[in-house]
UniProtKB/TrEMBL annotation:
<dbReference type="Pfam" id="PF20463">
    <property type="entry name" value="PDH_C"/>
</dbReference>
<dbReference type="InterPro" id="IPR008927">
    <property type="entry name" value="6-PGluconate_DH-like_C_sf"/>
</dbReference>
<dbReference type="GO" id="GO:0008977">
    <property type="term" value="F:prephenate dehydrogenase (NAD+) activity"/>
</dbReference>
<dbReference type="GO" id="GO:0004665">
    <property type="term" value="F:prephenate dehydrogenase (NADP+) activity"/>
</dbReference>
<keyword id="KW-0057">Aromatic amino acid biosynthesis</keyword>
<comment type="pathway">
    <text>Amino-acid biosynthesis.</text>
</comment>
<dbReference type="Pfam" id="PF02153">
    <property type="entry name" value="PDH_N"/>
</dbReference>
<dbReference type="GO" id="GO:0070403">
    <property type="term" value="F:NAD+ binding"/>
</dbReference>
<keyword id="KW-0028">Amino-acid biosynthesis</keyword>
<dbReference type="InterPro" id="IPR045865">
    <property type="entry name" value="ACT-like_dom_sf"/>
</dbReference>
<feature type="domain" description="Prephenate/arogenate dehydrogenase">
    <location>
        <begin position="19"/>
        <end position="296"/>
    </location>
</feature>
<dbReference type="InterPro" id="IPR046825">
    <property type="entry name" value="PDH_C"/>
</dbReference>
<comment type="similarity">
    <text>Belongs to the prephenate/arogenate dehydrogenase family.</text>
</comment>
<keyword id="KW-0560">Oxidoreductase</keyword>
<dbReference type="InterPro" id="IPR046826">
    <property type="entry name" value="PDH_N"/>
</dbReference>
<dbReference type="InterPro" id="IPR036291">
    <property type="entry name" value="NAD(P)-bd_dom_sf"/>
</dbReference>
<dbReference type="GO" id="GO:0006571">
    <property type="term" value="P:tyrosine biosynthetic process"/>
</dbReference>
Length: 374
């Protein structure tokens, strides 16, 4: 759990969210919302069908337990996808004075089910913060996981401006960036940038289960980055993938076709056109990576250099301190520490014009530069 001071250290603006806020579901996202709102001085009411999970979130300070007299102005439903529609319907009935939103990672299926039931959705606005961690539950909750992250808000013709402002205000208060998007577009988008990457990471990491210890000892930062999210909870992902199956299958089919083309080329790498197929695959990947938004949401190109950092306390802090003294702004950072090594490698990304001043300044201060931009 993040110390509330980590959130309160942000530049202060007027808090838009008026409490009390009721959060249904005291897992990672629900408890994280609770911590973030409490750090802003907003009253948070927690509820969960699991008494143990609820008590744990309360003990960690994410909010207080619900009472029969509660009159929340906003309800946030943070439950698994297979029960999201049920809980939204229940909360709309139980709290007629409140705006109700949910933070499920699939938006169309719950909406279709609620409409099928004839539920009055005038006070409901679906939303989804693109934030999370590999570990789940209240014990893994952090007040700062929403900072700088997109928060999709799915308005429709029934949505009033006042209710929309409540949900977007919640996102802004938690440090996220509201993004308006329809539920169909949202589900197609997360299939591509979240759901299929989870499957790809899991499928690749599954290859490690029968690998020799000698092979795995060679693993570097590249494979760790590629498989990081493979540590996610299977129970939750079964629900997410099932609820968004059609868009996920569409991306998987296209990916499978691409994999088949590359595999065919590598079966006969000397055949005409085989090397071009492989090269074009890598090139298209380059183009795709370049389109990903970078720092502050900008598609900017940075250059990287690698610094050797001794495996002793305080060295990474000293590196950042001296980069600050040199006037170098670090745009991104990746750390690699291979087992058994007495040093780590810090890959520092900066704007192109800052590479040589940074490298020259660090070398003058005794740092060893392991590699420079090609």
């Amino acid at each position: 759990m993040t110390d509330p001071a980590a959130v309160s250290a942000r530049p202060r603006v007027a808090v838009r969210t008026q409490g009390p806020v009721r959060v249904v579901g005291a897992g990672l996202l629900g408890a994280s919302i609770g911590h973030a709102l409490r750090a802003l001085g907003v009253e948070v009411i927690l509820d969960d069908t699991s008494r143990a999970q609820l008590q744990l979130a309360v003990d960690y300070g994410a909010g207080r337990s619900a009472t029969a007299d509660d009159r929340p102005s906003l309800v946030v439903v943070a439950v698994p996808p297979d029960v999201t529609a049920d809980v939204i319907e229940r909360e709309l009935v139980a709290h007629p004075q409140a705006v109700v939103t949910d933070v499920a990672s699939v938006k169309l299926e719950p909406l279709v089910e609620l409409r099928r039931r004839g539920v009055d959705l005038a006070r409901y606005i679906g939303s989804h913060p693109l934030a999370g961690r590999e570990r789940g539950g209240a014990i893994a909750a952090r007040a700062d996981i929403f900072i700088g992250r997109p928060w999709v808000v799915c308005r429709d013709a029934e949505t009033s401006a006042a209710d929309l402002a409540v949900v977007e205000g919640l996102a802004l208060d938690l440090g996220a960036t509201p993004v308006e998007m329809g539920p169909e577009e949202h589900d197609r988008s997360v299939a591509l940038v979240s759901h299929v990457p989870q499957l790809v990471a899991s499928l690749l990491a599954a290859r490690f289960t029968d690998a020799s210890a000698a092979s795995l000892s060679l693993a570097g930062q590249g494979v760790r980055d590629t498989t990081r999210i493979a540590a996610s909870a299977p129970e939750l992902w079964v629900q997410i993938l099932g609820a968004n199956a059609a868009p996920v299958v569409e991306v998987l089919d296209a990916l499978a076709a691409d994999l088949a083309d590359v595999a065919e080329a590598l079966r006969a790498p000397e055949a005409p056109g085989a090397r071009r197929e492989v090269a074009e695959t890598i090139r298209r990947g380059n183009e795709g990576v370049e389109r990903l938004p970078g720092k502050h949401g900008q598609n900017r190109r940075f250059e990287s250099f690698v610094v050797m950092v001794d495996d002793t306390p305080g060295q990474l802090g000293r590196l950042f301190g001296e980069l600050g003294e040199l006037g170098v702004n670090v745009e991104d950072l990746r750390l690699e520490h291979s087992p058994g090594a007495q040093f780590g490698l810090a890959e520092i990304s900066v704007v192109p014009g800052a590479v040589h001043p940074a490298v020259d300044g660090l070398e003058a201060r005794g740092w060893k530069i392991a590699s420079l931009p090609s």
